[in-house]
Write the structure tokens for this entry.
Amino acid sequence: MELKVDELFREAMSHLASGVAVITARRPDGSPCGIAATSLVSYSPHPPSLLVCVWHESRCHDALAGCERFGVHLLRSDELELAHRFADRAARDKFAGLDWHWDGDVPELDGSLAYLRCRRAENFVRYDHTILIGDLQSGRLEAGDPLVYSRRRMDWLMQPMMP
Ligand SMILES: Cc1cc2nc3c(=O)[nH]c(=O)nc-3n(C[C@H](O)[C@H](O)[C@H](O)COP(=O)(O)O)c2cc1C
């Protein structure tokens, strides 16, 4: 099937499966902010580092692009509501009613499959996103399965492998 390049990009990328993360930071005024993100990539084990792409129009962009540290929360399969909450561009306070606390200057959500506190090491600005590289400082890992995004849906369930 031949498609125009924009459509080819959208359709082909919709088949790419990824985990879903909530990326958090502190704004200069001291309030917490966060976005849902699937552009998270394991970058290098030397040092342990990851990258995430942040859209320039996000209300959280400047906080993430300028912070010293940010938080990465890998969501569990039963945390779909959290993903929708942090993807909501109209939400006034995404943290209202949630269980969370400050880990130093990083908003840490309770729960999630993994919490990774990262030191922002580098920004790369290109097109309409900023790429952040974060060096892993500390965190925690919990039991569970990941929330998986593919084909514009987030309700895929992991199946046990055949023996
Ligand atoms: C499945 C999914 C994946 C997303 N991935 C990203 C991403 O990787 N980077 C990004 O900047 N926004 C991403 N977004 C959009 C942001 O979550 C959304 O625009 C966010 O609400 C913007 O932050 P704001 O509400 O503070 O403006 C994604 C949204 C969804 C639903």
User: Anything to note?
Assistant: The chain has a mean pLDDT of 96.
